[in-house]
Amino acid sequence: MNLRVALTGMTVVGLIAVSGCTSERPAPAPSAGKEVKVTIAEGKVTNLPLGLDEFGAKIPADNSVTEAKVVLGKHLYFDPRLSKDGTISCASCHDPAKGWSDGRKNSSGILAQFGNKNAPTVLNRLFSTIQFWDGRAASLEEQALGPVQNPIEMGNTIEGMIANVNLVAGYKSLFRAAFGDENVTPERVAQAIASFERTIVSGNSPFDRYEAGDKKAMSESAIRGREIFRDNTKGRCSICHAGFNFTDEKFHNVGVGTDKSDWEKDHLGRAAVTKLDTDKGAFKTPTLRQLTDSGPYMHDGSEATLEAVVELYAKGGNKNPHLDKEMKPLTLSPQDKKDLVEFLKALSGDVTTVVKPELVK
User: Fold this and answer.
1) Span 304-360, pLDDT tens digits
2) pTM of the prediction?
3) Does 225 lie in the same domain as 162?
4) Cα 280-285-290 angle, rounded to 5 deg
5) Are strands 251-252 and 283-284 parallel, antiparallel or unpaired?
6) Which range of residues forms the domain containing residue 145?
7) Which is catalytic among the residues 153, 197, 303, 342?
8) Are residues 195 and 220 both part of a single domain?
9) Maximum CA pair distance of the chain?
10) Known catalytic residue: 187?
């Protein structure tokens, strides 16, 4: 379903998109004509879609969200001139048309180089602090500058990025509106991009409407999947995929990547930051919202479908010395697995999308 957002004034507007569920009865129809309006007010992102809790928002005290910052951040987010060769922007790997990921197993950067990680979605990062699969960035602000300096992503330096932005006359008025003067600094670039990213949300899914009392919002299959998902002896999913955003924002080793002989080289995970053996192979729990748009899945993009993801968890992950203690084989019938997949699909709903802006001149 086509989506549209107008990012003007103090409002981000997204039209409804509800993914269907294959089940015994037709998938629930979208709420025709209803719009989601995420509002910027008093330094916060408010009026969130159904299912999201604005009190769970993580906005640092020194970077309140303002209309002007969001507008600036939107332009910077889509601007490939932040990269060394002018070919890669934030949106190259976090594309609104692809669930704010890129639809690839592993993401590509400058000079057609490929990394070994799947691009995580930007959706609902309003509710998180620590970023990247290994948690090496403490905030969205810190994360925003990471890809700029990564040699196989945007391949630039901070100094080079700032010089590129300073060459664009049109950015002067945007920085003045957002920060009071025309001075371009790394901190301001990061704050603007982070502010824009905090307006990117997904909510009002069939699950959210079901929980709010519309018992026809989910299929019978998805309803059964909901119970399996929440059952800590059968599905065990909610142990880690907890809360309204379906993530504990923590790190777990489920064995992905550990089946390779040199897995500690490319799949060290959280241990690359903490240097703890117990964190080897542990990666950040992603949100489960809008999964229908953001595949392939897992930190390395190794699972192409939701069915494959469910199979991985059903067998208890891939065995390794540091497998998370919560990873255990599950006793699931073929129908149970189908029901779980239908529930996961029912977590896709309204999502912020943005039309790519013209380059600032």
Assistant:
1) 999 999 999 999 999 999 999 999 999 999 999 999 999 999 999 999 878 899 999
2) 0.89
3) no
4) 150
5) antiparallel
6) 5-201
7) 153
8) no
9) 62
10) no
